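Hi P.,

Sorry for the delay on this. The queue was packed all week, but I finally got your sequence through. Input first:
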Amino acid sequence: MADDASEIMTIEEVARFLKIPQSSIYRLAQQGKIPCSKIGRHWRFRRVTIEKWFDETSALYQTNKLSPKPNAD
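Then the structure:
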């Protein structure tokens, strides 16, 4: 069994892991805002890379270097 750090995840698994909608993960992937690879029509993510990206993104928000965009709704 592969160790968790090298685990490859699907959009569905990343969405569940981050507790956000799959459509948000798909949009972030298309925009190049989340680290991933596209294999054919399928997006794939390394768990360790997602964890690192999440920690770095969270740190930017906490230090006010990155402010969330207001919803267009």
